[in-house]
Amino acid sequence: MKGNKVRRLVIISVLAVICGAIIFMAMLGNSSVEKLQVVQGDQLQYSITGYESGNDVSGAMTIMVTKTTPSSFTASYSITIDDNTNRTEIVFDGARGGWSSNVHNVVGRLSGSGSAATAGNTSTYSTLFGTKELTVYSISATSQMGKSVLFQYWLDATTKCPYLLSMTYGNGDVLTFNLVYTNIAVFQ
Prior knowledge:
single chain, 2 helices, 20% helix, nine-stranded antiparallel sheet
């Protein structure tokens, strides 16, 4: 009698392990639970040109992933215009997949608005990385200084790489950001 109980416990334990393994493998194969593919050290670097308060300005912007967890990442934004640098870090919780899944959030945050971008036309553009088919996305917002701003960004139709960004302020100021470097494999 005692031997039967031990055998049942062993069989139940083995079945539990097998079921657990089957469920785990099914979860790995399930594409709807796509793991975060954005990694620490990923970066985008832009040159900045434009006009502010009637003066020509230039500078640079770097967006770098500084920390990742299985379901979030932190992006650090560093913007330098005429020797003035502003830095911001933003945590993106609940992130899944690669850059094509997350780029709207990362780039859209530059608008200063929580609004989603509206897609526009797709056109051919010449970039440092060759000729690309880019789709424009627009967000209308109000800047921290109370100015109206139209923020636009152009994404590659296939990879979703943000090659070009633009901020046009209600007072006539314009800043244009051109991608000059990325180490993100899918964008190269």
